[in-house]
Amino acid sequence: MRRRSADFRRPGRRRLQDVVGWTSCSVVLVFFIYILTKGTTKIDSTHQFSRRTFRQDRIIEGFNVTEEMLSPDSVTRQINDQISLAKAFVVIAKESNNHQFAWELSAQIRISQIFLSNAATRRAPLTIKESEHTIRDMALLLYQAQQLHYDSPTMIMRLKGKVQALEEQMSSASERSSKYGQIAAEEVPKSLYCLGVRLTSKWFKNLSLQKNLMDKTHKRQVEMKLKDNDLYHFCVFSDNILATSVAINSTAINSKNPEKVVFHLVTDEINYAAMKAWFSLNDFRGVTVEVQKFEDFSWLNASYVPVLKQLQDSEIQNYYFKGNNDDSRTPIKFRNPKYLSMLNHLRFYIPEVFPELKKVVFLDDDVVVQKDLSELFSIDLNGNVNGAVETCMETFHRYHKYLNYSHPLIRAHFDPDACGWAFGMNLFDLVQWRNRNVTGIYHYWQEKNADRTLWKLGTLPPGLLTFYGLTEPLDPSWHVLGFGYTNVDPQLIERGAVLHFNGNSKPWLKIGTEKYKPLWEKYVDYSHPILQQCNFH
């Protein structure tokens, strides 16, 4: 069979291929148009965002907060000023017990603060139109405050009256506090009273204690030590058994050669037996302890001692023991009769008390010794009588703070800026003392102060006069003060040889400073039977 020519063949398959081709092209064209349209839209939106960001940046750059606050026409500044004034009125309203008005002011302050916060967030200056409502509401409250007499002149007068009333209350409270503190400091704790009674009873009941002291061999050995100037002699004048015991025990424990240490104790007749019993019952590492009572000193009488002579005067007795004729002008601490006690003034008679000694260290009973003190005795006083630590690091401890410089005698003889020093740990050269008649100097000034016009009371002011020009400064580490009334530098505590609890807060009292009590209590043997019987803990 003969095939048809190409012109006469069927075109079906070729038509199908053409349709598929045209369809594919159309799809590709549509997709391309879509892509172009999407790209154009994205570019337009990006362009619009960029323009918006640029416009916002220009607004931010154009808004200066500092300039806005400093501008006299600034709405922000006006609102801030209203808030500051309103805060002051809130305090005044509360002081006047107008709590409702104080609440209204506080609420409006919060509204104004929120308004300013929102303005700061948008970073655009406030306009008068949008701020009018907030400013008006606050202004109405501030006007109301003025109508309630919360204006400055009225409040100044009211506050002055309140300040004056508070000052009077504070003065009264301070005076009461001083009195109660002084009473607490002078109080004899029950435990200390119990200790004295039990020891006195033991001394008179236990005759063996007295016999041991009366043993001829023992007595001869002690007497030799009491006069041996090659030993280290200390003296304490006290009626406090436990405090004296701590001073001696701490010295003994920290001494390199306790057998060379001699303590001379002087007390009064009331505590004499108790002192004798306590230091007979207890050993202090070989330290020699002598106990005397000042009533046995025949030379200690009114014809020789100005203080005893002054005590015979009825006016003095009324002043110190009854508190009359003063209208409470003098602080209670200066009216304390203990300042007239011979145990306090005996420090000015040390050469008479110990006529055989050449050098002695005087200790107050409220000290703790934490270093060996033997090196004190080798210190050269350069011809002076008194070796003491100066306390003039602050102006309070200069002469003008202790003495009455309106008195011509004081002005003529003493430099007001001379450096003060402290009793409590003093090295005395008794040879120079006798040569310079220091006790006579003390008598002179004590008699001049019979009317209490040179100084009020105490032993330090007459000491400053007596040893003026006769005092050799010692290294401050020998005597660290302040443990009874103030805070002390820990480095000074660590270096200190003698720690002094001067002030009212004695470590054996309830009012003692708690953080410093362990420094003192570690030298008390609370397991001692007598201390346990008297509830020491």
Biggest beta sheet summary: 7 strands, mixed
Strand proportion:
5-15%
Percentage of residues in helical conformation = 40-55%
Spatial separation of the terminal alpha carbons: 142 Å
Note the overall shape. Answer: elongated
Mean pLDDT over the full residue set: 83
Number of strands: 10
Catalogue the unreliable spans: 1-14, 38-63
Membrane topology: Single-pass type II membrane protein
Pfam family, one: Glyco_transf_8
Family: Belongs to the glycosyltransferase 8 family.
InterPro entries: GAUT (IPR029993), Glyco_trans_8 (IPR002495), Nucleotide-diphossugar_trans (IPR029044)
Please give a handful of descriptors for the protein shown.
seven-stranded mixed beta sheet; three-stranded mixed beta sheet; 22 helices; alpha/beta; 537 residues
Kindly describe this structure.
- It is an enzyme of class 2 (transferase).
- Pfam families: GAUT_1 (PF25557), Glyco_transf_8 (PF01501).
- One of its GO terms (cellular component) is Golgi membrane.
- It is a single-pass type II membrane protein.
- This protein has 537 residues and is of the alpha/beta class.
- Helix content is 54%, strand content 8%.
- It contains 22 helices and ten strands.
- It has a seven-stranded mixed β-sheet with strand order 3-2-1-4-7-6-8, with helices on both faces. Strands 5-10-9 form a three-stranded mixed β-sheet.
